[in-house]
C-alpha cells in the first residue's frame, strides 16, 4: 500500500517500475509495429498486453504491483477498442463499397483515440515518475468492476 503526503507518494512501489508500467502500452505498440514492419491499426488490440506483462513479471519476481496498473489496464483496453474499432471502420470500405460512407467516422475515432491515448499515457507516466497522484479518465463503472477497481474511488 502506498503512503501519500501532500499529494505525493512517499512509499510504495518504485517510481521506475511505475514509469515502465505506464509506458508499457506504448512500448508494446512500438515493438509490435517494428516486428510487423509497419504501424497497422490492429496493433491497437495488443495495447492492453503491456500492463498485463509488467504486472505479471513483477508478480513472478515477488515485487508489489505498480500504482494504478488496474486503471491503466482498463484505460488501455478501452482505448485499444476505440483505436482498433476506428481502424476497422476505415477498412470496411474494402469489404463492401457502400461502407465507404462510414470512413469519416472511423477516421475520426482512430485519430482522436490515438492522440488521446498517447497524450493521456504520457501525462500519467510523467505523474508516476514524479510520484504524483493520478487517475485515468473515461473508465465506465462496469469496466472498473471487471478489473477490480472501486468505481467511486481513484486507485
Write up what this structure looks like.
The protein is mainly α. The protein is 63% helix and 5% strand. The protein has a two-stranded antiparallel ribbon with strand order 1-2. Strand 1 and strand 2 (8-11) form a beta hairpin. Helix 3 (69-95) runs antiparallel to helix 4. The radius of gyration is 17 Å and the shape is elongated.
Which key phrases capture this entry?
mainly alpha; 5 helices; 5% strand
What is the molecular shape?
Answer: elongated
Extract low-pLDDT stretches: none
As an assembly, this protein is single chain
Question: Treating each run of at least 4 consecutive H or I residues as one helix, how many helices?
Answer: 5
Radius of gyration: 17 Å
Helical content class: 55-70%
Q: By helix and strand content, what is the structural category?
A: mainly alpha
Strand order in the sheet with the most strands:
1-2
Provide the β-strand percentage band.
under 5%
Tally of DSSP β-strands: 2
The biggest sheet, with number of strands, parallel, antiparallel or mixed sense and barrel status, is: 2 strands, antiparallel
The span between the termini is 11 Å
Spell the H/E element sequence.
Answer: EEHHHHH
The averaged pLDDT comes out at 85
Brief summary:
With about 160 residues, this protein is mainly alpha-helical. The chain is about 65% helix and about 5% strand. The protein is elongated and about 50 Å long.
Amino acid at each position: 500500500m502506498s503512503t501519500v503526503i501532500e499529494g505525493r507518494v512517499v512509499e510504495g512501489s518504485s517510481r521506475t517500475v511505475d514509469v515502465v508500467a505506464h509506458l508499457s502500452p506504448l512500448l508494446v505498440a512500438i515493438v509490435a509495429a517494428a516486428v510487423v514492419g509497419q504501424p497497422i491499426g490492429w496493433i491497437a488490440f495488443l495495447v492492453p498486453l503491456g500492463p498485463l506483462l509488467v504486472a505479471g513479471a513483477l508478480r513472478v519476481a515477488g515485487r508489489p504491483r505498480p500504482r494504478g496498473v488496474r486503471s491503466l489496464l482498463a484505460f488501455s483496453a478501452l482505448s485499444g477498442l476505440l483505436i482498433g474499432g476506428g481502424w476497422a471502420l476505415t477498412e470496411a470500405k474494402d469489404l463492401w463499397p457502400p461502407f465507404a460512407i462510414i470512413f469519416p467516422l472511423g477516421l475520426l475515432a482512430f485519430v482522436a483515440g490515438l492522440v488521446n491515448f498517447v497524450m493521456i499515457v504520457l501525462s500519467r507516466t510523467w505523474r508516476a515518475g514524479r510520484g504524483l497522484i493520478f487517475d485515468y479518465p473515461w473508465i465506465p463503472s462496469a469496466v472498473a468492476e471487471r478489473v477490480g477497481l472501486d468505481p467511486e474511488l481513484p486507485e
